[in-house]
Amino acid sequence: MSTAWRQLRMSGKEVSLDWILPSGQSFRWKREGEEWVSVIQDAVIILRNDPSTDNITYCTLDPRSPETTIKHESKPAQIPPSPPKSPPPAYEIDSAVHDYFNSSIKLASLYREFGARDKYFKQIADRFVGIRMLRQDPWECLCSFICSSNNSIKRITQMIDNLCATYGTYIATYKDIDYYTFPRPSTLASSPNCAAKLRELGFGYRADYVYKTAKAVADWEAQGNQLSDMRGKPYDDVREFLLQFTGVGPKVADCVALMSFDCHESVPIDTHVFNIVKRRYSPKTKMVSKTMSKVVYDELSLYLRDLWGPYAGWAQAVIFISELNRDK
DNA sequence: GGGACACCTTGGTT
DNA sequence: AAACCAAGGTGTC
């Protein structure tokens, strides 16, 4: 039913799936017992956490397998079933998974540096180990974070599920859950009544943002561009580029820059980080305002970037998750 | 140019 | 139970 299990040679200190995958970087991971399942580069990936060996193994589903194709007749066949593709060769899956987890970046040394620069980080670091940034597909990341505005992780997840099930391409079923590709911008842009449909799918006022941005990106891509071309450009350029899209403000732009465009210094200031700064860092920042504004946003983001250094965004992820789990 | 204000919808709290 | 608030904010006056 699947290709062979392979090893993601990263220790628990380097990556903790249970912290990273459900905490609002990607909104597409499903937990199945000790496994985490999602789609990377249009292939279903199953990650298995093996605490006994302090290692993670993974495999990909073979879409042609009977076990994974049983459910076809039960779905509305609006999308013509394209002939099942064969799974990508193992080396491609390997490189995709390692790329997705930013595996060449060593977390241990980053934690050391953050701890040395910031007393508060040092204080919480022991309880929040293995928190790293994923390196996500640019369009999926951009689209997901447009949906994140004034919203909760739970509902964002639901919206993205609906989006993929409606506009994505079916890949395979695993443990009774169907997996789909993330729809391309051009698919959304050319789909009739897309914005209205998105509202029906629970997007609320974000439906227009997603549709307009999909159209803008599709047009731009039609001229021979690719979002991933922006990788490697300076943070300010990436940010300016992203801010042109409807539904993208400073916070969303910083998230996408950090999580998809390799801008490791980008520090998104969301409501949780804002709260924790008020509570823990405020005396140092002379930050008195109670509400967010563009100026306050820029000040805070810059302050934390200076405090944590070139990989400040990675420290932000740790702080963010610690705040999400404050009660635990 | 900054500061209210509205915005879809869901889930949790009072 | 009805009202209210917050949720990884943004666009618009």
TrEMBL record:
Catalytic activity annotation: 2'-deoxyribonucleotide-(2'-deoxyribose 5'-phosphate)-2'-deoxyribonucleotide-DNA = a 3'-end 2'-deoxyribonucleotide-(2,3-dehydro-2,3-deoxyribose 5'-phosphate)-DNA + a 5'-end 5'-phospho-2'-deoxyribonucleoside-DNA + H(+)
Write down the EC number.
4.2.99.18
UniProt-annotated stretches for the region Disordered: 62-88
Against Pfam families, the record matches this protein to: HhH-GPD, OGG_N
Parts of the chain that traverse the membrane: none
Query: What is this protein identified as?
Result: DNA-(apurinic or apyrimidinic site) lyase
- Output the superkingdom of the source species: Eukaryota
Q: Where is the composition biased (Pro residues)?
A: 78-88
Family designation: Belongs to the type-1 OGG1 family.
Keywords (A to Z) from UniProt: DNA damage, DNA repair, Glycosidase, Hydrolase, Lyase, Multifunctional enzyme
The HhH-GPD domain, residue ranges: 147-317
Q: Which InterPro entries does the protein's record reference?
A: DNA_glycosylase, HhH-GPD_domain, HhH_base_excis_C, OGG_N, Oxidative_DNA_repair_enzyme
Q: Which SUPFAM superfamilies match?
A: DNA-glycosylase (SSF48150), TATA-box binding protein-like (SSF55945)
